[in-house]
Amino acid sequence: MSETSAPTRTDAPPAAQEGADGKTTILVYSDDSKTRSEVRASVGRRAAKGLPEIAWKEVATPDALMLEVRRGGCSLMILDAEAPKLGGMGLGKTVHDEVDPSIPFILLVARPQDEWLARWSGAARTLAYPVNPRELSAAVAELLNTEEK
Questions:
Q1: Does residue 11 sit within a domain?
Q2: Which of 28, 67, 107, 130 could connect to 123 by a Cys-Cys bridge, CB 3.0–4.6 Å?
Q3: CA neighbor of 34 nearest in space, from 77, 83, 88, 86
Q4: Given this model, what pLDDT does residue 69 score?
């Protein structure tokens, strides 16, 4: 009797791999375009000196996020835990458990009580929403710097 296991992705690029253009890709998920814009504006084109420039990819639906993750090349995800239907916690856990556990993700939560759920989901960082630009930028820089080493 042979054991069957879930297929494993062997073609996924390393988490902090720079693209051909020298940029690192960050995927931002929220159904709210203002939240996505706020995240991009908070971090900017480069999270910190010495780190590669960021190529931002924004998605508004769970299907779009999964499509982008499966395409590969994503260094980090920033997920809105408050998105309706399927929030960032569930999506982050799904990506981590079923697609690519090497992609770290930051969860934006509106309620401090949800931090334990964020830990359960495997989030590398949990930050309060509305976004504090300094905290978000520092978290992104720390995670990208860790992945670069």
A1: no
A2: 107
A3: 83
A4: 97
In three-state secondary structure terms, 100 is coil
Q: Is residue 43 part of a domain?
A: yes
Q: Collapse the DSSP code of 8 into the 3-class scheme (helix H, G, I; strand E, B; otherwise coil) and give the result.
A: coil
Contacts of 148 (CB under 8 A, 6+ apart): 16, 51
| pLDDT for res 11 | 36
Q: N- to C-terminal Cα distance for the chain?
A: 42
pLDDT per residue as tens digits for the range 74-108: 999 999 999 998 899 999 999 999 999 999 999 99
Domain residues for the domain of 78 are: 24-148
Residues recorded for the chain: 149
- In whole angstroms, what is the distance from residue 89 CA to residue 109 CA? 9
* Average pLDDT for the chain: 87
**Residue 33 maps to a domain:** yes
